[in-house]
Design brief:
By secondary structure, the chain is an alpha+beta fold. The protein has one domain: 2-Layer Sandwich (Histidine-containing Protein, Chain: A). It contains three helices and four strands, in the order βαββαβα. It has a four-stranded antiparallel beta sheet with strand order 1-4-2-3, with helices on one face.
Length: about 90
């Protein structure tokens, strides 16, 4: 089953360094194939090099796509991480 959702990056640093590493770590917990799509590029969301290579910054919109048994749960958790956890980082 394929699930996907668009999400806008709102934190200051975007999907770089620490947030990217945390995202990849979360994606790795799922059995589904998970990808991030940004400006017609698709990368494996479980690859730190892939995620960093996108250069996603604040205000950019990405699509998170998961394909597998736990796709729905993966999308829910990863989108929540972007919208809630990454946004909190700016408050520190």
């Amino acid at each position: 089953m394929v699930e996907e959702k668009k999400v806008v990056i709102t934190n200051k640093t975007g999907l770089h360094a620490r947030p990217a590493a945390q995202f990849v770590q979360k994606a790795g917990k799922f059995d589904s194939k998970i990808e991030i799509i940004f400006e017609e590029k698709e990368v494996n969301a479980k690859s730190i090099m892939g995620v960093m290579s996108l250069g996603v910054g604040k205000g950019n919109e990405i699509t998170v796509r998961a394909d597998g048994e736990d796709a729905q749960e993966a999308i829910k958790e990863l989108v929540e991480f972007i919208e809630v956890e990454m946004a909190k980082e700016d408050e520190e």
